Amino acid sequence: MKRTITVIAAGAALALGLTACGSGSSSGGSGAAAGDIKLGMSVSTLNNPYFVQLRKGAEDEAKKQGVALTVTDAQNDASQQVNQIQNFASQSMKAIIINPVDSDAAGPAVKAAERSKIPVIAVDRVVNGATVAQTVASDNVAGGKLAAQELAKQMGEKGKVAVLQGVPGTSAARDRGQGFTEGIKAYPDIQVVAQQPADFDRTKGLDVMTNLVQSNPGITGVFAENDEMALGAVKALGAKAGKEVKIVGFDGTPDGLTAIQAGTLNASIAQQPQLLGQQAVQGAIKAAKGEKIEATVAVPVKAVNKDNVAEFAGS
What is the SS3 string spanning the chain? Predict the structure, then answer.
């Protein structure tokens, strides 16, 4: 009765329509008790293993705390996400968690929720142009710098690098790129010869990497702003991946860790998506109860390579 979790994935969201996103929530009442709290969570995409893990962390925490959690998939569509946030507000959710498709586009919808006195928690990416109750995220700038250090080490501190960028407009892509750019400046014999978005997508990573290698045949290093794009680059590079061309990804996803073990991916900057989801729900529950919460919760990142991958692969 008090442990209802409603999850609407891509297909179901289309089939039922966005207005149905809270139809499975059954907990009623308006008190501050955990069982009376309904939370809405809009995830940028569930067509990415990283965000599936983030959802799992959120669901597990909601179940543990006995709150109703409705999860929707924005399918990387900023306007669809705005509709989802508006629907959550109209369904009298006690708090809303948003993993923005686009940090700027999310602002107006978050402002509208604020006007309705519904606290909003941003997870993994920031919201621009609006005040959220809390942002739960990895330090992506620090992670980008760490990626630069790891790639430089793998390359022997010299060579030509291509960067596969994430979805333009996301804080994750911007901050990781900023950190990498700052970090790689410490290595004067490394030159960034190409940068192109592949939208955090494995197939696009394959296509973009294939084109970049043709136009820049001397590439000896790749930084991909997430593991999905890194794995696309691995496929594009074939036998060169991890050997003649060093590749560093970001996220520490299960597939990424497997590739590190196989030697085709040299390193990844590991995040903790389940912990991000868990802490976002914890913050949302406190905000729903009117409790004071920290404006920012930083979840640490760590470089994973063949020397320490065993520590992460089993988790």
Answer: CCCCEEECCHHHHHHHCHHHCCCCCCCCCCCCCHHHCEEEEEECCCCCHHHHHHHHHHHHHHHHHCCEEEEEECCCCHHHHHHHHHHHHHCCCCEEEECCCCCCCHHHHHHHHHHCCCCEEEECCCCCCCCCCEEEEECHHHHHHHHHHHHHHHCCCCEEEEEEECCCCCHHHHHHHHHHHHHHCCCCCEEEEEEEECCCCHHHHHHHHHHHHHHCCCCCEEEECCHHHHHHHHHHHHHHECCCEEEEEEECCHHHHHHHHHCCCCEEEECCHHHHHHHHHHHHHHHHCCCCCCCEEEECCEEEECCCHHHHHCC
Query: Domain for residue 8, yes or no?
Result: no
Residue-range definition of the domain harbouring residue 217: 140-271+306-312
Task: Please give the mean pLDDT across all residues of the chain.
Answer: 89
| pTM of the predicted protein model | 0.76
> Would you state the pLDDT for residue 25?
33
> 154 and 261 share a domain?
yes
The domain tally of the chain equals 2
- Position 234 scores a pLDDT of 98
The answer on 132 and 150 residing in a single domain is no
